[in-house]
Amino acid sequence: MRFDDEIVRAVKRQAALDDTQSPKTDDELNKIIESVQSAVASGSYDFTASTSQVLTQSGGKKRYIKQYDDCYSAESILCKCIKQILDKTFHIQYPNRNKTVHSVFDTLKAVKQMADFTIVKCDFKDYFNSVSARYVFEKYIKEKLSNRFETDLIDKFTKQTKYTYAGFSTSNVIAEIIAEQFDSAVRLAFADKGVLFYERYIDDTLIIINEHVEEAECRQILNDVIKSIYYDESIKSRPRCKTRFNYSKFIHVTRRELMTFPNKVKPVDYLGYEFLFVYNPNPKKHSDIVLTYGITEAKRKKYKKRLDNLIALFTHEQINGVANPDYKNLELLRHRIATFTSREVYQSRRYRQTVWKTKGFIGNYGELRYLLETDLIDDATKSFLKDLVTDAFTNAGFTTLPYFMLGSLGKSGYNLFENMKKNKTFLFVDQIGYSEPALKRLCSQIGIGLTDRNGKNRGYGNLVRDYLIKVKVGY
């Protein structure tokens, strides 16, 4: 593929995903493509021309990011081109959260029956901002590239950007290239100890071993692996990686420890789930290790805040001093609560493949739905699922719930617990889910236009995107 083709693909993909501007016409897209091609031909692009921001996430956590202000600038589009090149060259398989979680649940069912086990959970501290893009280029990328122009482009990019800062479209792929080397090294380092399970999701790693391994030894092994992968002294490029574990979140649980402290709960959190282990010296069933499941407190607070914000868009006449167009729009609020308490499934294109996407709370915590009517769900999580929505309206000052929350309608359509049991889904796939006329009715109910500025009917995929964005699910 010629590099011009990479530019065309990057521009069109950006336009398809751009929810901040009106859809681009073909003429506008062609002008952007020509502008990027001209910048490449003259070498006038500058990857240092990014801006820095500090974002405050839920819980007050600060996140440092870098990005290009204009998503259609030569630098921004070339970043996307680099990602496309590296994805193809390294055949990156990005972690699938739902698949990983399903594997965790299946494995834990067997773990509590084992004669001995060790569970280790660790994560990197500020991972993306700690990985030297220059180091990864020199150690892993350069030798795999055969095209001289592409090599020179990525060489210049890594020199000018230095780290895989969150916000750059290249950061995920560059950080994943070296993280896959970390995975292989960890599996090898623990191989003689009987690794029953190993998964890493971006910067979050869970290891389950079928024998007892002391915490100090686990830490030493992992530190040795980090040193060998991220701190190779033979690589002289600068800057160096700053990658390290966040030991304040390091978790180590063993059967022997549980037996030493009967009835003391030992939690393991992974990808928003919380697994609570306790040793029962007088088991009523065949296992003396009791395992219950839930959602971490941090994630419960995150979703509570998200729901509070949805309701605030209905109750607040102004947001940050600006007139709020969603004020008192009850129908829009209904759609937002309906999608918040459900999961959303749709299709998008990645290169030449159709990719299925799942969004929403139930999509993120679907493994719990098989346990809802059992005693395997912890009490805090069960109360959260049953009461979150009604409590949010009460806390927002509603003396009477909105009509759609009343009676059997509210119980069956806008409640996390009930919707999770049924796996309630908005399936935005024509022919098997919402038909095009049904999707148009949804969009019309919340004021989404069905035609573009030229009066042409908008396509199914564009309507899905606009609907998910307007109900605050995201696309």
Which structural traits does this protein have?
four-stranded antiparallel sheet, alpha+beta, 18 helices
Outline the biggest β-sheet: 4 strands, antiparallel
Range of helix content: 40-55%
Q: What shape does the CA trace take? A: flat
On the 0 to 100 scale, the average pLDDT is 91
Query: What's the number of helices?
Result: 18
Low-confidence stretches: none
Describe this structure in a few short sentences.
The protein is α+β, with helices and mostly antiparallel strands. It contains 18 helices and 14 strands. It has a four-stranded antiparallel β-sheet with strand order 4-5-3-6. Strands 7-8-9 form a three-stranded antiparallel β-sheet. The chain has a three-stranded mixed β-sheet with strand order 13-12-14.
Question: Can you give a write-up of this model?
Answer:
- The chain is flat.
- Helix 1 crosses helix 2 (26-42), helix 3 (74-90) packs parallel to helix 8 and helix 8 (171-189) packs across helix 9.
- By secondary structure, the protein is an alpha+beta fold.
- It has helices spanning 3-17, 26-42, 74-90, 97-111, 127-130, 133-141, 148-161, 171-189, 215-230, 255-260, 297-315, 330-340, 361-364, 379-395, 407-413, 416-422, 436-445, 460-470; strands at residues 51-56, 62-67, 118-123, 195-201, 204-209, 251-254, 266-270, 273-279, 289-295, 318-319, 322-323, 343-350, 353-359, 425-428.
- Strand 12 (343-350) and strand 13 (353-359) form a beta hairpin.
- 30% of the residues are buried.
- Strands 4-5-3-6 form a 4-stranded antiparallel β-sheet.
